[in-house]
Amino acid sequence: MSTDPILLVAGEWLGAASGVLAVITIAAYLLRWGVRFRLVGITSFTALLAVSCLAFAVSYRPRVTVEGAVSVPVVFDNGAELVVAAAPADLPAAAAAPTAEQVARNLRGNGRQSDDGMVRVRLRRVEAVEAGLSRPVVLAEARRDLLSGEISLQP
Known about the structure:
Elements: H1 5-31, H2 36-59, E1 74-77, E2 82-86, H3 96-105, E3 118-130, E4 133-145, E5 151-154
Parallel strand pairs: 2-3
Antiparallel strand pairs: 1-2, 3-4, 4-5
């Protein structure tokens, strides 16, 4: 799990600022200042920003790049065991397997409801058979085990 150091520092500073604002807000209530209700809003918003920065910094994970892979869009994802990515027409044959592996490594496993814990990632291209008729051709397939993170390439 990667963390973003800028967001961690910002979260810490915002947390300290919300603590100082909380003390000022309590003092405003005790001394019956006119801005005490505005300070409640400012303090709670600052605390919300601090928690949000810290949560995003901890949960952020950069995308994985595989050497020889091409960035492709995911065109189908059933949320369980199948993900299909579209290959461009000019994709070299040597880049098909690394591209399928890259898509598999960048999948988020949370919330997927696969029976065996495996997700199939297919890299496909649509080829024209004749005028008005086309068929999908699977160029590469990768399987990812969601529990262990292990990836196997299928021929």
